[in-house]
Specification:
The chain is of the alpha/beta class. The chain is built from ten helices and six strands; from the N terminus they run βαβαβαβαβαβααααα. The model has no long low-confidence stretch (mean pLDDT 86).
Length: 220
């Protein structure tokens, strides 16, 4: 329970129903937590966060329609008081850095135990940060010289629009469909396509799709 005896309100965002149900059951078993809502994609997550005003969002990073990363960024921008935990299969410093920049206070791998997940939830609700041990090791390795923390990556050079186009290409949309959804011309879509593929050194749609999946932008 919170200091006033009220349950902590939690929103679950996960596109796999079975996993979402498992998370709900786990949290519901603890009298301190109340799952007030669920969402299966990033757009729905934004709407639910606005409507329900939860204290904590547990967000899968790989989802349809809008990636968890983009949804997380939008939720924390609109509601700075909402805390967030990124839930993911991606065990890389790059993914961790992106999630923290998007507003996550916790980064938890889907391979963790129930106990570790509950620990993460309690830590974040208490105003602390929590990283899964495997991810923390990646960060430590970076500071020891195996990587350069804060180094600008190819992804960092993409504009917000180029990232949108990349995600939609990876989801199988054609240039005309992307243009219609983003309210831009097909020629502008093609310009963004050329630019993003050049910046990322990608040379085919399949390479774009693989890159998007690796970054957790699309569900796999």
């Amino acid at each position: 329970m919170s200091a006033f005896g009220k349950k902590h309100r939690i929103l679950l965002v996960e596109d796999h129903t079975l996993l979402r149900e498992g998370l709900r059951s786990l949290l519901a078993a603890d009298p301190a937590f109340e799952v007030v809502g669920e969402a299966g994609d990033g757009l729905e997550a934004i709407a639910q966060a606005r409507r329900l005003q939860p204290e904590l969002v547990i967000m899968d990073l790989s989802m349809p329609k809008m990636s968890g990363l983009e949804a997380l960024r939008e939720i924390t921008r609109q509601h700075p008081g909402i805390k967030a935990i990124a839930l993911t299969m991606h065990n890389t410093e790059e993914h961790l850095r992106d999630a923290l920049r998007a507003g996550a206070a916790g980064y938890v791998l889907k391979t963790v135990s129930h106990t570790e997940l509950l620990t993460a939830v309690r830590c974040v609700l208490a105003g602390q940060r929590f990283l899964s041990p495997q991810v923390a090791k990646q960060v430590i390795d970076g500071y020891l010289g195996k990587a350069q923390p804060g180094e600008v990556t190819a992804w960092d050079t993409l504009t917000a629009r180029e990232r949108e186009v990349l995600k939609m290409i990876a989801e199988g949309f054609k240039s005309r469909e992307i243009a219609d959804q983003l309210c831009i011309s097909p020629s502008t879509v093609e310009k963004h396509r050329v630019n993003l593929m050049r910046k990322l050194d990608l040379h085919s749609v399949s390479a774009v799709t693989a890159y998007a999946a690796k970054r957790g932008l699309i569900a796999t």
